[in-house]
Amino acid sequence: MPPSLVETDPLAPLAELGPGVAASTPGRPEQNLLALAWQSRWLVLLFMILGGTAGWLLLQRAVPRYTSGSKIYVERNLPQILDSSLSVGQSASYLFTQAEIIRSTSVLAAAVESPEIAQLETIRNAVRTGENPLALLREALMVSVGANDEIITVALELPNAEDASRLVNAIVAAYIDKYAADRKSSAVDILTILRAEKQRRQTDLEGRRTDLETFRNDHPELAVKVRSGSIVSDRFSTLTGELNSTEIQLLEAKALYNRVKGMYDSPAQRPLLADMARENSEGIEEQSLLALQNQVQGVELQIAAEQAHWGDGHPRVKLLMKSLAMWQERLDAKKAELAEDRATMTAAYVDSVKQQYELLEHKYAELQRSYDRQFSEAKEVSAQMLQLASLQEALERSEKENDDINEQIKKVNLTEEVGAMNVSIMEVAAPAAEPSYPDRKRFLAAGSMLGALIGFGLGWLRNLLDHRLKSADEISEALQLPILGALPLAPGVKNHIEAGLMLVNAPRAAFSEAIRTLRTSFHFGLGGPDVRVICITSPSPGDGKSTVASNFAVALAQSGQNTLLIDADMRKPRQHGIFGAAKDSGLSTVLSDRRPASAIIQATGIEHLSLLPCGPVPSNPVELLNNGFFGDLITQLSEHFDRIVIDSPPVMPVADARVIAAMSDATLLVLRAERATRRLSQAARNELWQVRAKRLGVVVNGVPLRGPSGYGYGYGYGAGYGGYSYGGYGDPSADDAPLPSERRKKSRPRLGAEPIAAGPQD
Q1: Nearest partner of 665 among 537, 556, 529, 539, judged by Cα
Q2: Pairing verdict, β 66-76 and 421-427
């Protein structure tokens, strides 16, 4: 089925009518956030202004605070002795430690104890209000280490700019006085310690050298054994690995021999032993037996196939039976031959397992004797070599320690300032000219941004709660139906009578062009040569379906097609008022009195267009439409007109539209732009699908000319259907059996039409 055509089979089950009948309809499509933001732009702008105003008010009420800061550079000169980690005096961990020291209570207390600092307004106010000055300073103090340098920044943020600068300078001075001045050590003491340690280690070195020489003199044979020590060790290692491997093989061979011997002694297990022997010595005989078995199976398959095709008495079957007997004899002879050799094969297999076990047992004994002999040699050499290596290692360690002490003595700084921590003040704190808090730009930007987010959120919530169909794509996706046209609003139209003949009164208006576009879309999308009867309806009252029906009928007539417009809305008819026709007789008269339609059809003054008005409003419109005569009437009229346009009541309030749609060749569902809801539109479509309405299409009516919602443009007109009710019209929810829509003939003799009386009538 082409995507522009939706047609249902009257004989198809309901499950095949469409996705809305047996399956759930598509969910709500994803919202384009940019489109949603543009749609809610005034709401976003309003809340942005409100947010900016709120930020400005908070800015006026905020107490300004000023930030003053000082930058210091900390370094220390320590001797590089023994522990290499002590040489990293400028490491990051050291700087962060100093930053924590500056925040410490002892440094802050030393700064506050100064008489000049105690008289500052900030400190006096804290004491007067009962607040702890140290807690106040710790909360406002900021100490940071540079990410790309080794500079420590000390800053305070207080309402008084002068107090902030003086307190920062006091804290830096307290840190320098309390910690930096005490970090000195004596270079002479360090040098004395190093020389004493060197003397002790020199004595230890001489003693170890003497011990090594004495051991070498007592064991002169080590000069030879040391050179061959690696050979002995390698040989011992090789023998150990080979002995372990042979022991594992011996255990496996012993287990196999015991198992085979037990099976050979047991008559019940000898067949299994024969199978093991056969698997161990598979050869040409076994392959020959397997080939004979495969040949017998292949001949049997050929016999089965030939018997199924020719029968048992066919010469081919008999020939194959003889071949099968021959191959079977060969197979039996081969099996007998192998059975005779089985006993001999089993005994030979047992002897081979026994010989393998005895061979491994002899090999293991020889390896064990070699291992014991080599172990004694390696043990003797290893003990002496171990003692010699220990003495050599002790001597080398003592020599290295003495070299390290000599190197550290050379690096000692003999000045009295060795080990002192030097603090350089790179920048002295000064009173700030501008407050650091509040930041006007940040306050206003944050308020405006927060307001915009709130406005966007409210717009999103409004869109989420709004179930109206707002775009052509959304309508097409929700209903799974083609959109044939979008009709724009007609500005300046005073009433529904003027709107119903827009194509005649204003042929160049945008609405008229949209009607002609709808006619073209219908012709190429739904209106094939077999489409004669067109039902125009809507989900609910006020969607403008009567206006669409009258103008669409005029458009068809202007294209040269003999068109009949039937006002089948027998609850609130409109077409007689639009065309100024008499309403004393019409469709209701034809259906109730069985009068001929040719006597009631009226001319409209428009070439090729005739009108069958509603007539008097009956009390039982559903029964009149569903009694069988209406279907015969439509069939008869379709033989005289090229197109029959039926203005039907809305689908949801009453059952009339479902009866009419079931007997029509095509149905146009009119939706009011920005008012039609997803649920109601899908329900109307499902109702039409349930009565097997054919060739459904959608017309969007009342689209604003600016087209912000994605329709392009549309037309909106709606007449109230307040008079619709279920009382007195039967039960609209009852399953009215739709009349069959028979194939119309294409003959076009036009019925005569009486002229309409001059002047419009109600």
Answers
A1: 529
A2: antiparallel
Q: What is the tally of helices (H) and strands (E) in the chain?
A: 26, 12
DSSP string, 53-83: HHHHHHHHHSPPBEEEEEEEEEEE-----S-
Q: Which two tokens stand for residue 276?
A: 């093991």
In this structure, what token pair is assigned to residue 11?
Answer: 């004989």
The per-residue pLDDT for range 251-300, each reduced to its tens digit, is 877 777 787 777 777 776 667 766 676 666 555 456 667 777 888 888 88
For residue 536, give the DSSP letter. E
Q: Which fold has domain 468-703?
A: Rossmann fold (3.40.50)
pLDDT of residue 651: 92
Query: DSSP secondary-structure letter at 155?
Result: E
Cβ neighbours around 388 below 10 Å, total: 17
> 3-class DSSP state for residue 154?
strand
User: Alpha helix locations (H) across 266-314?
Assistant: 270-280, 284-310
Q: Which fold has domain 222-411?
A: Helix Hairpins (1.10.287)
pTM assigned to the model? 0.47
Task: For the domain covering 66-184+419-427, report its CATH number.
Answer: 3.30.70.1130
Q: Is 670 helix (H, G, I), strand (E, B) or coil?
A: strand
Q: Which amino acid is present at 124?
A: R
Cα separation, 697 vs 661, in Å, equals 12
Q: Which residues of the chain have pLDDT under 70?
A: 1-31, 76-92, 180-191, 219-233, 268-270, 273-275, 277-288, 337-343, 345, 377-385, 387, 409-421, 466, 705-762
- 586 in Cβ contact with 574 (< 8 Å): no
**684-696 burial: b if 16+ Cβ within 10 Å, else e:** bbbbbbbbbbbbb
User: Token pair 């209406």 is at which residue?
Assistant: 630
Token couple for 516: 């002609």
User: Tokens 């039996």 appear where?
Assistant: 332
H/E element, 181: none
Domains 66-184+419-427 and 468-703 equal at CATH topology level: no
Angle at which helix 161-178 crosses helix 121-128, to 10 degrees, equals: 90
Instruction: Report the candidate in 548, 553, 549, 618 with the shortest Cα–Cα distance to residue 583.
Output: 618
Q: Give dist(CA 271, CA 281) in Å, integer.
A: 15
Which sequence spans correspond to the domains of the chain? 32-62+438-465, 66-184+419-427, 222-411, 468-703
Q: Angle at CA 198, nearest 5°, toward 193 and 204?
A: 130
